């Protein structure tokens, strides 16, 4: 079962060009230009040794911040609409970076591109003509969802990304992006993505207001209202979190049934557990990784680039799904990636993931990342990632043993149900 991608029908004529492209599509900018444009907008240093100086210079931009949102001119959706090309077909020399062993495109690289583009769309929304540098530090707060409608992304066909701001709060912006790939002269949909970005002051220390958004047609009104609904849905989901509330009666029954099913019937004991046929204990699905966060992976604000964190977590998640299902897994959906705190350059990033729910061919994987401070020995969670994969064959059932694992199972089941509702 695969998604039908829904498209924001903004005429491509409205596409804003950043500069004239150097790729096969002369009118469209490419991903390299997205990154250099971002560097220019915030005045990021090209050399790591200059980063303190560059941040010092950004301090002066504090005076350009709006005191209230009403002081900022409203924007239309088309004001932030961008089209960007990833010229994999017309520029073969860039393919290598995107290629996986199956001769298709590495999804982790696409996550990085979506993140960069999402931030540029927000800078386009908040652009003030008179300000060559933006006083805003725009960071990724949440990847609400990415739904794919194609299993394979071809490494030798051009890709087009489109997107615009779809909803605005006081300091946060929802961005909807779409990815299409060129086949036989036509672009066909590959994925839809919804991100939430948050504007911060020039030093990324406190929140900053962003321009309001005014929908101009009933269709835009609907997109905007959906953004508002998405915000409420996120609040509901987080209120019902199993970290805050007990599972529902139905969920408790599911967990109790799994528990009874794992008791060894030969002994009259609650302690002797037995793995049912065609099942795997959840604890046996774990894989871990460590990443030293070098300056090369920094973003324009000298913290670790969100796209890099997503790529690393995705690749661990993919490896978990691969070894669990025993065949090549395909990504179906990414949802609810919360960037809880920034990752500093130089951090030790610990990644740990496991299968937390399975159904037929589907594998729900959760990856947890935390930074470890070697001086204080403190651990702080930075992100939780949820990935839904589909395997070629039906997969064994994953079985929780402890109460904590049962909560992970239920959380995975909730995420899986939300994904299935969307696709
Ligand atoms: C230099 C050379 C390199 C160049 C490389 C080029 C690459 C390009 C790289 C470019 C890419 C660069 C990109 C990167 O790499 S960014 C790097 C990855 N992201 C981060 O590191 C962010 C880490 N998290 C934080 O810093 C905080 O948690 C943030 C700032 C996000 C929130 O902090 P806090 O909780 O204290 O905030 P608040 O309570 O004041 O609320 C403020 C607003 O935020 C809304 N909100 C908050 N959380 C969420 C949520 N989960 N879902 C939806 N909304 C959320 C909230 O409703 C409110 O909205 P509003 O009601 O005001 O509207």
From TrEMBL:
Cited CDD domains: BFIT_BACH (cd03442)
UniProt entry tagged with the keyword Membrane: no
Keywords: Hydrolase, Repeat, Serine esterase, Signal, Transit peptide
Domain of life: Eukaryota
Signal peptide start-end: 1-15
Gene3D superfamilies xref list: Hotdog Thioesterase
GO BP terms in the entry: acyl-CoA metabolic process
InterPro entries, per the entry: HOTDOG_ACOT (IPR033120), HotDog_dom_sf (IPR029069), Thioestr_dom (IPR006683)
GO CC annotations, alphabetized: mitochondrion
Domain HotDog ACOT-type: from-to ranges: 80-203, 283-395
One Gene Ontology term of the molecular function aspect: fatty acyl-CoA hydrolase activity
Family, per entry: Belongs to the acyl coenzyme A hydrolase family.
Identification of the protein by name: Acyl-CoA thioesterase 9
Species, as recorded: Amazona collaria (yellow-billed parrot)
């Amino acid at each position: 079962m695969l998604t039908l991608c829904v498209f924001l029908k903004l005429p491509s004529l409205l596409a804003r060009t950043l500069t004239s492209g150097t790729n096969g599509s002369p009118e469209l900018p490419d991903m390299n230009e997205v990154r250099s444009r971002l560097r220019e907008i915030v005045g990021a240093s090209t050399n790591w040794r200059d980063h303190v100086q560059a941040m010092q210079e950004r301090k002066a931009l504090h005076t350009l911040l709006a005191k209230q949102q009403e002081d900022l001119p409203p924007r239309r959706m088309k004001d932030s609409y961008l089209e960007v090309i990833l010229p994999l077909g017309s520029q073969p020399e860039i393919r290598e970076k995107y290629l996986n062993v199956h001769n298709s495109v590495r999804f982790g690289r696409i996550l990085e591109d979506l993140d960069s583009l999402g931030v540029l769309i927000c800078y386009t929304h908040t652009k003030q003509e008179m300000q060559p540098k933006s006083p805003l530090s725009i960071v990724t707060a949440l990847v609400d969802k990415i739904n794919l409608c194609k299993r394979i992304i071809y490494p030798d066909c051009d890709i087009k990304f489109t997107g615009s701001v779809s909803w605005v709060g006081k300091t946060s912006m929802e961005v909807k992006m779409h990815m299409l790939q060129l086949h036989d002269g036509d672009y066909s949909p590959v994925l839809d993505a919804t991100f939430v970005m948050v504007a911060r002051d020039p030093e990324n220390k406190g929140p900053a207001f962003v321009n309001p958004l005014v929908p101009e047609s009933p269709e835009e009104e609907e997109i905007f209202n959906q953004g508002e609904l998405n915000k409420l849905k996120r609040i509901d989901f987080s209120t019902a979190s199993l970290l805050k509330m007990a599972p529902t009666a139905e969920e408790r029954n599911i967990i109790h049934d799994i528990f009874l099913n794992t008791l060894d019937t030969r002994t009259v004991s609650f302690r002797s557990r037995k793995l049912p046929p065609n099942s795997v204990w959840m604890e046996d699905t774990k894989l871990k990784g460590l990443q030293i966060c070098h300056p090369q992976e920094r973003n324009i604000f000298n913290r670790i680039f969100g796209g890099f964190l997503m790529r690393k977590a995705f690749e661990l998640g993919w490896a978990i799904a691969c070894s669990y299902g025993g065949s090549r897994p395909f990504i179906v959906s990414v949802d609810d990636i919360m960037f809880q705190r920034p990752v500093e350059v130089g951090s030790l990033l610990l990644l740990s993931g496991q299968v937390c729910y399975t159904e037929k061919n589907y594998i729900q994987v959760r990856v947890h990342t935390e930074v470890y401070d070697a001086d204080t020995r403190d651990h702080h969670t930075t992100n939780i990632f949820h990935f839904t994969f589909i395997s070629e064959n039906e997969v064994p059932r994953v079985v929780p043993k402890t109460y904590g694992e049962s909560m992970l199972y239920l959380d995975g089941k909730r995420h899986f149900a939300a994904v299935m509702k969307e696709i």
